[in-house]
Amino acid sequence: MQGKGFIKFMAILLGIVCLYSLSFNLVTYNVEKKAKEYAKGDAVKEKAYLDSMATVPVYPGLGLTYQQVKGKEINLGLDLKGGMNVTMEISLAELTKSLAGNPTDANFNEALKNAQQQMNTGGKDFISLFVNEYEKLVPNGKLADFFANQDNSTVLKSNSSNSEVKNYLSKEANSAIDRSFIILRSRIDGFGVVSPNMQKQEGSNRIFIEMPGIQDKERVRKLLQGSAELQFWQVYQNDETYGVLDNINKTLAAAVKDTVATTLAVAGDTTKKGGKLAGLTTKGNTADTSKATKAINEAKKNPLFALLQPAVAPNEAGQMSFIPGAVVGISMQKDTAKVNAFFAKAEVKPIIPSNMKFMWSAKPRTGTKLFELYAIKVTSLDGKPDLGGDAIANARADFDQQNRPEVTMFMTSEGATKWKKITADAAADPSNKKAIAIVLDNTVYSAPTVQNEIPNGVSSISGSFTQEDTKDLANILKAGKLPAPAKIVSDFVVGPSLGQQAIHSGLASFIIAFIVILAFMAMYYNKAGWVANLALVINLFFIMGILAAFHAVLTLPGIAGIVLTIGLSVDANILIFERVREELAHGKSTAVAIRAGFKHAMSSIIDSNVTLFILGFILAIFGTGPVRGFAVTLMVGIVTSLFAAVAISRVIFEGLLNKKASISFDNSVTRNAFKNIAFNFVGRRKLYYIISSLIIVLGVVFYVKNGGLHLGVDFKGGRTYMVKFDKAMNTEDVAKKLTTNFDGEEALVKTAGTDNSLKITTPFHINDQDQNADKVVETALRKGLDELGAKYSIESSQKVTPTIASDIIYGAYGAILFSCIVMFIYILVRFKKWQYGLGAVIALFHDVLLVLSFYTILDGVLPFPLEIGQDFIAAILTVMGYTMTETVVVFDRIREKLGETGKADVYGEERNTLINFALNSTLSRTILTSLTVFFVLMVIFIFGGDSIRGFIFALLIGRIIGTYSSLCISTPIVIDLSKDEKKK
Fold it and tell me: What is residue 313's three-state secondary structure?
């Protein structure tokens, strides 16, 4: 075998990379295990322990801190960890209105209204819709009259055409979305989310955000939907502020006990009384006890300075002196809220001058969790900042003369005048130049020292910036000029208890499915099966290692993708082993048969895996959230499967052959399986057409009877709640009670796996734009549930507005149509006949229709809901992948047979015979791979949890339909498409 050394090298190299990537999970596991042992069930102590380890090196040899290692491990998605995701929509209507100076023109505002309505029904480009609507209302109207002004005179003139205005608005809209992304990201970072996932949904004005571990949904909604206000403030110097802080500290010490001191004192008392912390005190820890007592006394004596360290340092003489600058103190992140609480106390407020207010830095100091405190100087009577964000006309990332990254700002004409005065005042004293704080949402993003007066409104901000820092800061500086409110159009909350159930279910399905695969391969293929099993274990290791290396977010559908990939990876080995068995049946030696088997199976393996990879790629493009997670793991698994199942297994076989080892590919039970089979698939094709037609017609009947497909909340908009009761509930009784409380709006109630778990969906208040609408619906829900007289808990909630629902529908249509086009082109190129491509595409549509038909027929019959949602689209596309894989294998066998006979094509009865031969000769492979995948899917279906049961059911019936379609529909169709061809 050529390249054996290279394959070994690549396997070892990839193994080292995967081992390194997975090692971070092991390190974090050890740290978190110690935290649990230390806390003994106390969540506060556990969090405090992990906070204390944030900057401590925990990775031996590399010196990486716990915080750094945590950021490199495989992240768990919402369904495994619990948390929240939201889709934010940037209001381009309000942005456009603001750019025009908020005009009162009736036609202008009517055009905005019409454009927004079209966006809500599936429109994409708001700016184009607005311009078109305005030109309809005012055929000869000039948009430049609204938008051209002195501030944008370099890009727009009073005589600019509507097309030029449209281009200007499009650029500003894209810029506003980019800036909103930066602002939202900085807010989430400040919120303390571990491993958030943010994505701009290309081609739209929406931003998708995942926040694992977050449960305070009301706080998150306020955080994300709050106004992004940019301000410029003068600041007090450090030495000017210390007197105020010292006075606050003394007042607190004299008047009240500090929260920290009280907590520590209670802990000390508990220890003495033999309470929860008694175990921490032994005869050998008197030094620790003395240290704790000293800390308590210090906290009582200096309540503020125990949490807030003043900005002082020893001078050359060894005496403490103030550190020059605007920073007045530093505090740990966990203590900032306590410091704020001190400042808000009634006895402290009079001490703080009316022209002073405190603000924290937006980010901690590099490599720490220390936040800086600034004292903002209020110079106006109305309490407004010296300059607002509306003064910024533009900002860009730039470089100074030493090629260091900096930010260049351009003020408006009015802003330039104010900026000149502010900077002149700040730089007036050469020996004591002052700083200007740039504040976003009441946190200090930057506080540069002003070196000179800036007269022309153009200035720069420099510091220890990277290029990414200056790009982000430039975007943030521009945010104040273009107010573009962000609204939540979709949100999904899942509780940690559901996440823990999902973890156990996912692991159970994974382990059992893996064992099923290993047992089947070993029993059916004997010693060769163990080679395949070894390649399978290596493949699993590679999959997990690569996902860890790319910091992928692992979701329950992602685990399903891994398990499914394992099942599909066996397909390559089955293809090879079946070809080897054919060669052995012809009397060839084991060595010759193995080499011939790998050679002849390679074309089918590559074609089938490429088609499935293309489907995975389409899923990744069109899907979001769990669908994309499934697609990513599927694509990674396909690549690693090809390497492990083909290359590595070939090296193992070559090694066994060199050692003269005995290699068997069957046993007494499986030796003659699928021998002498000669089904007349082509001759019975009309019967198959009739069976498929009857199922589709029956599906149409049930479609009409049921009033259409059962669309999930993804597609029609609404709110869905997963509610768990302490006893079995009657769904009709629950629905009646909730409908009454929902003011007559529909409440669709279905069981979710068990009689005490219900899925409740309602469109109640879905079009209500009020921020309190969520509370109104949840209050009505709880009122209705309370009237049932049973204990319950709301496990999760999801909201999707009709706006985003229409986008998902069009995206689903696009995914299916686009995949069909791609499949047709690929098969046309590979097999050089349009009949093959068209036959495969017809089979794809056939499969989709059959799956939809079974969904309509069985909906309401099965004990779980059969909804048409995002997961169903993933299932449909995966089913299409199955069909393509099976069909391509048959097409490859036909092409191989034609090559053996020296013909380019055959016609008539000769073609029928050839296709029947191809179908029967690949039947063993088709049935074995179908059974293997079916077993895996059954395991996931049984043990995989309620959240993906409907999704896996679609794959199960899709697996059956795909096998049936590849044998009875797709290939026979080629005959009917080619029957009018004449033999050349």
Answer: strand
Q: Which residues contact 688 (CB under 8 A, 6 or more apart)?
A: 964, 968, 969, 972
Q: What band does 271 get if pLDDT is binned at 50, 70 and 90?
A: very low
Angle at 955 between CA 950 and CA 959, to 5 degrees: 150
| 3-class state of residue 430 by DSSP | coil
Answering whether pTM is above 0.85, one says no
Facing residues of 332 across strands? Answer: 370
How far is Cα 681 from Cα 665, in angstroms, rounded to an integer? 28
108 exposure class (CB count in 10 Å sphere: 0-12, 13-18, 19+): buried
Nearest Cα neighbor of 409 from 389, 425, 384, 424 is 389
What are the b/e assignments for 662-678, b being 16+ CB within 10 Å?
ebebbeeebeeebeeee
DSSP letter for 947, please: G
Question: Does residue 857 sit in helix, strand or coil?
Answer: helix
Q: What pLDDT is recorded for position 265?
A: 43
CA distances from 128 to 91, 133, 254, 719, 808 (A): 15, 9, 65, 31, 21
437 burial type by CB count under 10 A (0-12 exposed, 13-18 middle, 19+ buried): buried
Tokens of 411: 């003020």
Note the pLDDT tens digit of each residue in 822-839: 878 888 887 778 888 888
383: left (phi over 0), alpha (psi -120 to 50) or beta: left
Which residues, other chains included, contact 801 with Cβ-Cβ below 8 Å and sequence gap of 6+?
A: 489, 490, 717, 766, 767
d(CA 937, CA 513): 8
Q: Quick one: what percent of the chain has pLDDT higher than 90?
A: 10
Cβ-contact 644, 596 below 8 angstroms: no
Model confidence at 502, in pLDDT bands (50, 70, 90)? Answer: low
Coil, helix or strand for 532? helix
